[in-house]
Amino acid sequence: MVIKMKINILTGKxxxxxxxxxxxIKQQIDASSLDADVEIVDWFSYVSPMIAExxxxxxxxxxxxxNRLYNTRYRFLxxxxxxxKPELSHYFGWHFKRFMEEKGPDVIISTLPFCSxxxxxxxxxxxxxxxxxxxxxxxxxxxxxxxxxxxxxLVGSASVKDKFIRKGVLPxxxxxxxxxxxxxxxxxxxxxEKSSDxxxxxxxxxxxxxxxxxEDSDFYNGLNSLPGAEVTLISGNNHKLxxxxxxxxxxxxxxxxxPNVYDYMQKADVVITKPGGITTFEAIYSEVPILALNPFLxxxxxxxxxxxxxxxxxxxxxxxxxCLNHITKILDCEHLDNYRYSIRRxxxxxxxxxxxxxxxxxxxxxxxxxxxxxxxxxxxxxEDSVIDEKISFNF
Length: 395
Known about the structure:
This protein is α/β, with parallel strands linked by helices. It has a six-stranded parallel beta sheet with strand order 2-1-3-4-5-6, sandwiched between helices. It has a six-stranded parallel beta sheet with strand order 9-8-7-10-11-12, with helices on both faces. The two termini are about 35 Å apart. The chain is about 50% helix and about 15% strand. It is globular.
């Protein structure tokens, strides 16, 4: 009996990191030997497109204008009890019951803490054995990611695994796989060997989906004046910055949202960016050193600490002049080659801990369970049929 598994990946568009991780997981499963139908579900859009739009707009506003409030809440909840009850749990719990009846998944993968909490609550109330895999999309051990009915955690680093264990998660449930990236970053070869003694330095400046990069003209005046530098700036969805900078500088090429970020990363000697979890691991797979620019959200700070600890880049903080001075020092010495050496070591370890191998075990176990259930139902149907025949005959 051939059993095709149905996998739902639950996510949301708070920034683009969670959703990008979901796309990366789907890509990798689709390209593997696993026989599965994979569907990505933006949870809030599933519940209500109007609610989703309001949630995402509020989050964007909070990140841009109220990051102190965001960080205060983040730190307050960071080490709370392991099982945090999701907000509006009854409302979203009802919708999840509807979701299960409609979709009928065999496995759920979550790239959003809220979704993991909702699924865990459902499993607690119903006694369901539905496998729940949570993929943590930042280098953080925040308690919001931990739910007692999660079966497996995919985490980015050993430090996250250690924090989860200290908070009561069983070690065998945690797998250090790195944060998943799209296959274009994993497949594409480096165009040529990069070396710190080349005269031209190709600098990529990015701000993620929200385009959170400096708007200070002094910063860009300084970049434009760096000797031997060719700068490409990807402003993402920051349309204001795109129009402000486009065509203003001789040595800075300004782009908006681009679907092929991997092409630009592959060609860069260094990337200057807000250190999101996904972006950090995209840079690792592209073997390009990362300069973490003024991290201010708490998870960005943790990601930047990881970059520094693994020696795959540096944290660049301060005003425009301080940042430019630091960038210039890094470009003018052997730092880049040292960072690349460390990146290749980290990248090698990531390939050794493939996410797909772990998912294969879960999905094959689920296939076996589902097959046994189907076999039991088939036998029961045969028994019922025999009983029906006997009853009919006796009558």
